[in-house]
Amino acid sequence: MAGSQLKNLKKSLKEQGFTGQTNVKGSKKGSKRQAKEYDREEKAQRIAKIREQFNPFELKVNRDKKTTQTGKNASLKAVGKPGISKQIGEERRLVAHEAHQRRKNRLGGLTDRRFGERNKNLTEEEKMLERFTRERQAQSSSKKSLFNLEDDDEGDDFGAAGDEDLYGGTLTHYGQSLALEDDFQDDDLGLEQSKRSASAFDGDEDDESRPAKKKTKAEVMKEVIAKSKFYKHERQKAQEKLVEDIEDVDEEFDDIMSELSTISKQKPKLPAESGASDKQYDTKVRELGLERRAVPADRTKTQEEIDQENAEKREKLEQARIDRMNGMAGIDVDEDRGVEDLGDDFWEGDNSEEEEEFGEHIDNGFAMDDVQLPGDKGEKGRSSGSKAVAILACPQSQDELMDILENHSAKDHPSLVKEIIRTYQPRLAAGNKELLGTFVGVLLRHILYVSNDYNDSNAKELGKMQNELIAILRSMAQKYNEPLSLTCREISNEIQTRFKTQRSHGLLASDLVFFTLVGYIFSTSDHYHLVATPSNVLMGELLEQTKLNTFQNIAFCAVLARISLTYQRLAKRFVPELVYFFEKSLTTLLPISEASKLEKGLTKVICDTNDLKAPPKITAKSMEKSTLSLRLISDQKRQVSDSDKIALLCNIFTSMEEAITQIWKDMSCFPELAVTVKPILMAYCEQYPNLETLRVIVEKIERFEAFSEHFPLALQNHRPLSIPMHTPKFEENFNPDKKSNDPDRTRNEVNKVKAQLKKERKFTMKEIRKDTKFEARQQIDQKKKEYSDYHAKMARIVNQISTEEGAEKGKYEREKRLRNSKK
Amino acid sequence: MLLSKDEIASCAKRVAASTDRRHYNNIVKLVSQYPDLSQVEESAFENDEPTLRFLTMALLPVFRKLFSRGQLNPAKAASANEKQFSQWCRKLYNSYKSKLLHCISCIPFESSLALDCLDAYMQLLEQEAIHFASHDDAPFFPNKTLKALILAIFKSNVSSSVDAADGQSKNPVVLEFTQSYYKKHVDIQYYFQAEMTALTQEDESIKTLDHMQLMAKWLSIMNHDNHYSSEDADLEIFVPQPPQAMENESQFKSNLEKNWLFFLNLSGLPTTHYKTTLLILHRRIIPHFNTPTKLMDFLTDSYDLGDHVVSLLALNGLFELMRRYNLEYAHFYSKLYQLVTPSLMHVKHRSRFLRLAELFLSSTHVSANLVASFIKRLARLTLDSPPAAIVSVLPFIYNLLKKHPTCMIMLHDPDYISDPFADADKIALVKERRRQYTDPYKMEESNPEITNAIESSLWELDSLTNHYHPNVATLAKIFSQPFRKHNYNMEDFLDWSYDSLLQAEVTRKLKVSPALEFEEYGAAFGEYIKCVEW
């Protein structure tokens, strides 16, 4: 529009005929047409339109920055009418508000959902019809009602029919349903057929509509007429056939009904008959079903099956062990779960299986020791135990255990301990499990304690007892794993602190027993083990830092070396401290002078003493014995004989041979190890040319060296790394108009949904804000209205009163005047 | 016998109060009171000590008075008579000084008297500086007096005064001299060093003293940071007018240097002295030297002592000299290499060695042969070492390999990779190579340049992946993984020990119950553990 706003306004007003000379002709003619009510309304509308037109805020146009120059899209511009939309919103809110106001302060109540109850546009007839159809629809949707006859024909499976038969619901004839009426009904209405024909018609229609050629109107009409005629004819034929069928059935109906009546008489009686007589029987059967003994027992397994099962079990355990050895992470989770399970069915397990399981363990433990415990356990144990049971308290510290065992000979100790364990089985009383848990630790400590005071006289007896006690401990370990592990950790701490404060003087034979037991009870091949790993470290410390200046210390370390080797028999891990011990101990024991040692290059390792040289000659007889006794270690003052030294030397050689054949030979640094060990061995060879073990070791080393391929490593043989590319990728069909050029479809979708959510959220917030504002406004309006109402009312009352008053006053005056005048 | 305190007090007061020269004879009496202390018993001395201390303190104001009266300087005397009197007084004064020095040098145990004497002597020194100057306000320092004191201090022989740990003297006189005078006053430092030089260079008597004591005293005097030539020294002057000559810093340095070298060349010093010296070498000795390279002989001697720690520290000193002062020392690395001995892995100072070795080998200009030798030798030593040592050596080797990538051939030699897809010739070639390979490394060779380590390979590290301790095994695996990490911080690995390893285990929670052994082994001893019986 050209020109100023004002000019435009004037122009449009003039066009509409509001200003200027209006109806010039008419006025001249002097027409007597008066402005009527509807004229005024129309006028107001037109004025509003003009006003709207000229209000710059009523229209809001989205300015498009890109396409302004083309101009042709101007008509397509998005135009918003904020005023109007606001108005609409306001109105909607008002409606909602009013509805809400109406419902306000009205709790509960009924909403009339009856169809058309208040609707005045519907006749009574129509209402009924509508209600009927609705009811039918509702019924058809809920098909699963019990007595729905119409659905029975669908459930033609016999099970269902039989079920209903029990309650005497559905009638059958020779196992077939008698619900013929339904089929009949359907056919009668012609529903099935009409449907079918309709589909056929659809099919035709489809076929014909496929060709691209468009038909003329006349053709279409002709076709429709032809078709409708054809169908009408068809329907008539079907109707006739139906009628005939119905007549046929009607004729036979009486026969069928008579037959039916004879059958249906018997059926309802059945349940009543059985119920009275067999109730007792039924309950009996049910009870028997629940009886525990009724469950068929597992078949007694044959020896082969048992063997196979054991083999499988072992295989499984072995696999788990190998997994642990390789440090697989998964095993931890499994074990974790195992522990939880144990916690869950803790009592249950105790109730049912504890006895058997426990017995089994004891059996296992003693089968090897060939003690006649199985029989013993059954009768003798019980009878002798029953007396002791009353007296014995479960020892919770080593002193208490000592008090109990003091008065008995060493032979009886194991059976006493067993008695204690049996007495305090967890199933017998609450809290027994904890008591026994502590007792396991006490037992371990007791074993260690006993192993410290050995001497030659009682060695055999004590050894036997110890073995039995250890077997008991081992069988307990399964059940009381945690307290036992905790005790083990405590003990290893004690050993370490003792070693730290007293150095080599703090070594005890019991330490060796402890390490042995750890290996004996726990799995030492694990990559990481909560008990075995600290023990390993501690053994390493003892091997490395013990001063090899007395025979006892060397013997201690030699036994330690054996234990360490036993630990590594499966995992075959490398223990450098062992190498160190071999070097140092052998150099110490080597019976040659310092000068010749220097000559042979054996001064690398600094020896702690020079007084412990082995005898210069070993006879063939004495060299066979290589067994060390723990008594040698515990007895510090013992005179060391040459044969002891030879035994020690042979023991170390045996350990070394084992280390070489089991562990070192597979390592890539075997030649390096051989280089360190060989000079010492050669020196010994020179000294004792007829020592068998030595010769074997040297031969083995040479053989392994010859066989092992020793060539440079290639540890860094990794797959070549791809270098990250930093040049941007060229997008073939890049579209700047697209909101997202993300090639990832799912991410794209997600982003889309996110954006949508954000938008919706914003919109909703806006709406809520508008709503609250509206509410506030409404409230203010209402208050204002209330106030004005109140004031108007008060004014009216005051008025009324004053008028009444005035009237009374006038009346009084008049009366007064009247009386005065009377006087 | 000795006079009582009251008599001493009255005598001293009489002299001090009036100028009457008749009382001056009392001074003679007082000075002669000092007994000969060289043979004195500690128990007997305890009775006399308070009196002697009182005597010393009483005589001090007397001589102060004489100073202020100008009666001790014959050169300033007006007449011949006065001069004679002054000379007499001076003689008296000198005998007092010698008595003081006698007390300082001869008491063979700790005593307060010696400290009092030292204080008195130093005050007299100050007085001399004021009054013995050629004219008033002329700069003067009584260096002869100081020299006498130095000699006395060094002669003082308090039994068992040498600290066993760091070899410094705990003699209270020495400590007091250091604390109150030497450390605080610049002029004393200068003249101390000058006179010390005179003593050491010319006087033979000092060499006859016990070398250990000498060195101990020297160390406790010198072991501080507040030196004349330190940049941030906080020093005062002791005498009011020290001479100009004192400002000659290079003179001071050369004196100090001479003195240090004299003391370091003393024979028969224990290792503790070497150790202490080497520890303060960087901060407290080298900066005060004119030519620090003169220390080379001392450092070489220290290295040859045979003590590992001292050798290592000596190498550290040599390294500093090489780095900062262009010392040429051809055998440095071979000497370092010789310190890598089997026992290194089993001793406490291993971490110190590795720290320093990392510094020494940090240069990228060191030859690959040399680095390879170090790597190989350390790797070899891990074969019989405790886990703590292995844990510290592995990152060290990693860092070395990272810094000297030429040595990577010891971990990865592509010539020996057998590629299953290569043609037959190549496979045969590789096979042949493998068969013919013999390890050329010479473990016993002491020169790291010719050990052939670079042609060897680090099988030892490969084997350590099979170590019994899971953490060590995991750490050893870094060598078979890609070398992505730039550098390991050595400090995280150096201070492990069996203790800390076990401590880490103890604090671990018992989340999972430990797995049990399922095999049956019969009796624990004899069958499970073979060759051992109860």
UniProtKB/TrEMBL annotation, chain A:
Q: Where is the composition biased (Basic and acidic residues)?
A: 34-52, 88-99, 111-137, 279-313, 728-751, 806-823
Query: Compositional bias (Acidic residues) at which positions?
Result: 149-166
User: Which InterPro entries does the record match to this protein?
Assistant: Nop14 (IPR007276)
Entry's localization field: Nucleus, Nucleolus
Record-level GO BP terms: maturation of SSU-rRNA
Region ranges (Disordered): 1-170, 183-218, 264-313, 727-751, 803-823
Question: Major location, coarse class?
Answer: nucleus
The UniProt keywords, alphabetically, are: Nucleus, Ribosome biogenesis, rRNA processing
Q: Which domain of life is it from?
A: Eukaryota
CC annotations in GO: Noc4p-Nop14p complex; small-subunit processome
* Family statement: Belongs to the NOP14 family.
Task: State the PANTHER family in the record.
Answer: NOP14, NUCLEOLAR PROTEIN 14
Q: What does this protein do?
A: Involved in nucleolar processing of pre-18S ribosomal RNA. Has a role in the nuclear export of 40S pre-ribosomal subunit to the cytoplasm.
Protein name listed in UniProt: LAME_0B06634g1_1
From TrEMBL, chain B:
Which superkingdom does the taxonomy of this entry point to? Eukaryota
Transmembrane feature ranges: none
Q: Which residues form the CCAAT-binding factor domain?
A: 311-476
Tell me any Pfam family this protein matches.
Answer: CBF
- Spell out the InterPro entries in the cross-references: CCAAT-binding_factor, Noc4
Enumerate the Gene Ontology biological process terms. ribosome biogenesis
Any single Gene Ontology cellular-component annotation = small-subunit processome
Family named by the database record: Belongs to the CBF/MAK21 family.
What name has this protein been given in UniProt? LAME_0F09736g1_1
